Amino acid sequence: MIFIIVLDIEIVYGFPYKEKPEDTVIYNAAAVLGPEGFIGIYKKIHLYAVDNLWSAKGDEPFMFDTKWGPISLGICYDNYQFPELVRYYVWKGSRLHLNPTFAAEEVPNEGSRYAWKRCYAPHLEYLVLTSSIFIASSNVTGWDGSLYGGGGSYVIGPKTNAFEEVEVATYIGDVDDYQNKMHICTIDLSLAVRHQCTDNPYGGGPDYRPGIYKKLFDEIG
Q1: What residue segments make up the domains of the chain, in order of their start?
Q2: Dist. CA 220–CA 175, nearest whole Å
Q3: DSSP state, 56?
Q4: How far apart are CA 15 and CA 78, in angstroms?
């Protein structure tokens, strides 16, 4: 905690979590700590494949307040296959979304790196393109037991091209980077305009319409 206080930062780390030591239920979770101490725990909502063999499903989204505004959190599969979770966060005001993840590469299969990149990067870039927010993704790199983490930790976010269209910019890191390292960069959160959630000058309101989506999900839920 000393370095958190001295540096005035928040940290997020993933771990298997029990609500009580005697519990048999385990969650795939991420804890958040800040200068004032413990902030909270997010329990992964969407479990990938064999995660279901050891982990229970969480059922609550998680955001935390900072001096720069709210920051949102999803774990791995939450972010790659369920963009509606991120859109919820964006509507609630998030401009920076965190992705602690173990995105494994199928080493030593031929073409594994190409296949891994085609899975990992486009899913995160899609969130930037459709929501105009920043994504900070921290992935395992190298062997952990029988699984090989693909690395590729980076921070990506929006930039606007000459045609007023959103493009994806990499602010630090590299999808091809296997090295264990700490990335430090400065981002301008004013670029995270959350365009779906702001008023369309031609439509009189935001393009994002949660009232409509609620009706649709009530029908199937």
Answers
A1: 63-220
A2: 37
A3: B
A4: 16
| pLDDT tens digits for range 16-33 | 999 999 999 999 999 999
What does the DSSP assignment read for 86-109? HHHHHHTT-SEEEEEE--EE-TTS
Instruction: Note the Cα 30 to chain centre separation in Å.
Output: 11
Q: Is 70 exposed, middle or buried (0-12, 13-18, 19+ CB in 10 A)?
A: middle
Which residues are within 8 A (CB) of 166 and not within 5 positions of it... i.e. 6 or more apart? 128, 129, 132, 158, 159, 160, 195
- Residue 195, classed as helix, strand or coil, is helix
User: What distance in Å separates the CA atoms of residue 115 and residue 128, rounded to the nearest whole number?
Assistant: 21
Residue 5: CB atoms within 10 A of its CB come to: 12
The residue written with tokens 């173990």 in the block is: 102
pLDDT for 23 = 95
Distance CA(46)–CA(83), nearest Å, equals 12
Cis peptide upstream of residue 108 (ω within 30 degrees of 0): yes
pTM (2 decimals)? 0.94
Of 46, 158, 176, 36, the C-alpha closest to 97 is 158
- Residue 202, token pair as written in the block: 């031609």
Q: Which residues pair with 155 in a beta bridge?
A: 136, 172
C-beta separation of 152 from 99 below 8 A: no
Q: How far apart are CA 211 and CA 190, in angstroms?
A: 27
